[in-house]
């Protein structure tokens, strides 16, 4: 319901544990925030790979009976939000196939930017695709590899794809973790007794009692087998471009991502935001849950107390019956409700991690004003989002991003705040290691570290060409009337 970028996917794998499927189930629980459309688990007893996939949350697709049908000491799991391919059970992962190289299962977090070209070439060669997921391209490349041995075929396959990928794969007796040479998406390695664990975030390790060892390095292939852990680096050198939005919004605050505490980074973003964009106010109110850490930092640096002036309903679920238009802004109110005793008569600073389209921010400001706030100031703990992501995040087209299509003053007027301020790019990059030198910031800059094939480039250029001179009248920079945005906001 909230106007946010959609979390990508989460992957989990464990080798050499008698309860592999059960622990994978728990690991996916911890990663549920990364994808809520579908969940899947594949397991191996050393003889056969079995799997189960289901739409919806992890607990909706798996129960004790289902897990007993996934025996073995090796398993991989996946939670999905579709960034490439339609939402449906056919696209749910892990994808499991039987090939000349043996049985194989794979779960993918990311987006293969050359998947369209590779798919066309494979179809011309006679390949038959069963899904619309970009991950299936890798499966076909693996199955068609002329290399001897499963590991060699896997390395051959991943060497032909480009873009963002953190894969967890399994054969009947091995667990493999792969991270693309740029390191866009996270992938951690953990240890649970004699078992090895690969997962998107360390919060999954915490849940099962595993110890964080290190990250899979960018461009590294890590194989866990009966011989232990082995590392291969088959890729050429590439500029490290880790996704900074993992720290801004995607990852859970209790995780370590790219070797850094998400909580500490987000809190520092709030401190920097307060120093850059101070305003006289009485109370700092986070927009839960993603704005809480930054609000803590903002309050700390500004000396203005933080109070939980918005309460989130965590029991909404994925669907509910919407009433008629007589109850306006129901979609936001069902999830958030203001605390009048904290807000009434106060100058309020609302802290959030991002503004995408602005429709939800507008509704929240209206709620705060209706609860009696004297002033409402919005503070955003990242720069304006001006470009779509092509590396595993479901983002709107550029024409739908309010930061790309409106001036700061137009955004302020649209959300009806007394002031709006974003954290600067320097401020954002100053909060992560190395001043952000190893981070991708394409959604804030429009500078992309990996080139796109013809079809994706055309998509991008179409959006960029719309960013011409603003026509006269009350319109945004791409000719979309502000009145239409307001109409859309009310309708949604």
Structure commentary:
- With 492 residues, this protein is of the alpha+beta class.
- It has 2 domains: 9-238, Glutamine Phosphoribosylpyrophosphate, subunit 1, domain 1; 260-439, Rossmann fold (3-Layer(aba) Sandwich), CATH 3.40.50.2020.
- A hairpin with a 2-residue loop joins strand 15 and strand 16.
- Helix 1 (20-30) packs across helix 7 (202-208) and helix 5 (135-144) packs across helix 6.
- The longest helix has 15 residues, at 262-276.
Brief rundown of the structure:
It is built from 19 helices and 23 strands.
The CATH class of the largest domain is Alpha Beta
**Poorly predicted runs of 5 or more residues:** 458-492
User: At the fourth CATH level, what is the homologous superfamily of the largest domain?
Assistant: Aminohydrolase, N-terminal nucleophile (Ntn) domain
Radius of gyration: 23 Å
Question: Beta-strand percentage?
Answer: 15-25%
| Spatial sequence of strands, sheet with the most strands | 3-2-4-1-10-9-11
CATH architecture of the largest domain: 4-Layer Sandwich
- By DSSP, the count of extended strands is 23
Total separate domains: 2
CATH level 3 topology of the largest domain: Glutamine Phosphoribosylpyrophosphate, subunit 1, domain 1
Which class of secondary structure composition applies to the elements?
alpha+beta
Largest sheet, if any?
7 strands, antiparallel
Number of continuous helical runs: 19
Shape: elongated
**Distance N terminus to C terminus?**
9 Å
- Mean pLDDT across every amino acid position: 88
Q: How much helical structure, as a percent, in the residues?
A: 25-40%
């Amino acid at each position: 319901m909230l106007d946010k970028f959609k979390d990508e996917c989460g992957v989990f794998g464990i080798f050499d544990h008698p309860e592999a499927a059960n622990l994978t189930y728990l690991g996916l629980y911890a990663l549920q925030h990364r994808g809520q459309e579908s969940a899947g688990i594949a397991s191996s007893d050393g003889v056969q790979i079995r799997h189960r996939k289901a739409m919806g949350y992890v607990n909706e697709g798996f129960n004790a009976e289902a897990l007993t049908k996934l025996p073995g000491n090796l398993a991989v799991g996946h939670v999905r939000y579709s960034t490439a391919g339609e939402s449906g059970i056919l696209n749910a992962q892990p994808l499991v196939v039987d090939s000349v190289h043996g049985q194989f299962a794979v779960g993918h977090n990311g987006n293969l930017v050359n998947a369209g070209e590779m798919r066309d070439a494979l179809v011309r060669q006679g390949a038959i695709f069963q899904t619309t997921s970009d991950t299936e391209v890798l499966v076909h490349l693996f199955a068609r590899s002329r290399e001897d041995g499963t590991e060699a075929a896997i390395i051959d396959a991943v060497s032909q794809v480009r873009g963002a990928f953190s894969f967890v794969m399994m054969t009947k007796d091995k667990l493999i973790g792969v991270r693309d040479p740029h390191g866009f998406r996270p992938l951690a390695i953990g240890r649970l007794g004699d078992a090895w664990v690969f997962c998107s975030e360390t919060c999954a390790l915490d849940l099962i009692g595993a110890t964080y060892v290190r990250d899979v390095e960018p461009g590294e292939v890590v194989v866990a087998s009966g011989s232990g852990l082995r590392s291969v680096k088959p890729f050429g050198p590439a500029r490290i471009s880790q996704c900074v939005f993992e720290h801004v919004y995607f990852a859970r605050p209790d995780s370590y991502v790219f070797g850094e505490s998400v909580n500490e980074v987000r809190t520092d973003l709030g401190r920097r935001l307060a120093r850059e964009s101070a305003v006289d106010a009485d109370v700092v109110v986070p927009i839960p849950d993603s704005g809480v850490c930054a609000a803590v930092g903002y309050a700390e640096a500004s000396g203005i107390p933080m109070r939980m002036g918005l309460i989130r309903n965590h029991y909404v679920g994925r669907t509910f019956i919407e009433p008629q238009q007589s109850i306006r802004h129901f979609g936001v109110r069902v999830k958030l409700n203001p605390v009048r005793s904290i807000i009434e008569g106060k100058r309020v600073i609302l802290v959030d991690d991002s503004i995408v389209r602005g429709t939800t921010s507008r509704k929240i400001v209206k709620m705060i004003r209706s609860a009696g706030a004297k002033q409402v100031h919005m503070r955003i703990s990242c720069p304006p989002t001006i470009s779509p992501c092509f590396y595993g995040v479901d983002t709107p087209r550029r024409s739908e991003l309010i930061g790309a299509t409106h001036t700061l003053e137009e955004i302020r007027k649209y959300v009806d705040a007394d002031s709006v301020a974003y954290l600067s790019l320097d401020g954002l990059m100053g909060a992560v290691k190395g001043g952000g030198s190893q981070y991708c910031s394409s959604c804030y800059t429009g500078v992309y570290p990996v080139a796109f094939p013809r079809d994706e480039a055309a998509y991008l250029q179409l959006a960029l060409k719309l960013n011409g001179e603003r026509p006269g009248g009350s319109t945004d920079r791409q000719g979309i009337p502000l009145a239409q945005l307001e109409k859309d906001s009310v309708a949604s």
